[in-house]
Amino acid sequence: MQYLIPFIPVLAVIVALVVLGLLVRGAVKLIWQVAEPNEALIISGFTRGNVGTAEGMDFKIVTGTGAFVIPGLQTVRALSLTLNETELQVNCVTSQGIQVVVQGVVIFKIGDSTPFIANAARRFLGQQAKMESQVYNVFEGHLRSIIGSMTMEEIIRERDKLASQVRSASGIEMEKLGLVVDSLQIKDLEDPTGYIQNLAKPHIAQVQMEARIAEATRNREAAEKEAEAASLIADAQSISAIRQSAAAANAQTAQANAAQAGPLADATARQQVVVQETEVAKLEADREEQKLQTSVRKPADAKAYAQRTEAEAQKAADISAAEARAKKTELEAQANATAAAAMAGATRVTGEAEAAATKARGEAAASAIKAKALAEADGIKARAEALGTNQEAVISQQLAENMPAIVAAAAEPFAHVGQLTVLNGGEGVNNMVGGILAQVGNYLPALTDALRESNASRTAKSSPQQVPQRPEGEAHAQ
Questions:
Q1: The pLDDT value given to residue 401
Q2: In terms of pLDDT, which residue wins out, 366 or 39?
Q3: pLDDT band at 93 (very low <50, low <70, confident <90, very high)
Q4: Do the Cβ atoms of 92 and 100 come closer than 8 Å?
Q5: Of 64, 67, 106, 110, which Cα lies nearest the Cα of 86?
Q6: H-state helical runs in 78-194
Q7: How many CB atoms neighbour CB 385 within 10 A?
Q8: CA 25 to CA 31: how far, in whole Å?
Q9: Alpha-carbon torsion 325, 329, 335, 339, what sign?
């Protein structure tokens, strides 16, 4: 406590200042009044010569700002400027005599201008709750009046027009009350007599009919779409099944091909081996043919040619010798005839000379024929000897000489084909050529037998005959 004694004067000053501040604040609040944004201050009493007062009124209106108020000389009261709402439910009769209950709502407020605030202050200051009943009464009368001049159809179709007419008709009265209507809405129309319902029945029936038609149409279209969808589903399922079957078939084909790959490869290998063996056989046949030509045919041809040449040379020599002897004999006969003619007489010598010449010519012709026959006999004998010693070689030679004609005859049916398609590429060509060669091979035994018989028959027909010797007497007789 002894420590606080020096601070007691300071604390007393602080308390005095706080009390003074509170007193000043209360005094200022009493003197200076501020209006809220949604209210107007009505100041009555001493107004300093009506400055800021309404026309014809001894009070001051303050909105949105503040004003000094002299306590005891002036009174301040607040007038709310917020919105107010009144529900309407008015029994009316149309121009057709049809009873209708109109339900609506009116949203109103005190006007913002000074005249509206002044009118509302004089009528509703301190009793603003009465504004709703006053507004209801105003709109009730105008609604009945306006609806009485309209038909039910107009009321239904032109509610905005009805609301506009009611607002226009009540505008002057609402202005006198200092009120402004922000909104008037007709919410509903009650029809105790059922006129609206009956009025709507034809339209309802039409709408129901159109609705049923539309529903039926939609159902039909939906059924068609469902049928189309089902058809598409069936098609898709069918296509899927076909593809699955094709895939299964392809798989089975692949399996079968895989299973046949080994035997097919073996068969292909064997076929290639056969083709190679056939080629080797052809080469061996060609080699044998070359050997045959080298070892048999050419020597035989050379021997036969030599024999023919010797025979022809001998023939020519014999013919020349015979001709020479005949010439010599003729000359000798002529000489003898000349000599004899000289000795014995021309007639006898001439006859003998002619006889001798004729005999010499006969002998020369006979010698020439004999030499020719002997040469031909030697050629036939050489051919017969060649056929006897190596007949197969001669036949092989003849087959080799005629082989192009034989192969051409075997392939002759293909000459009449306009366009030939060979499958399997080179293998197909090899198969076709092998078939032709096989066909030629089938004919070779028959051709060999035919050639053998032909050669035997030709040899038999061409065997040398003994040339008959003409008797000298016959030649002489000639």
A1: 64
A2: 39
A3: very high
A4: yes
A5: 106
A6: 114-124, 130-147, 152-157, 159-176
A7: 14
A8: 10
A9: positive
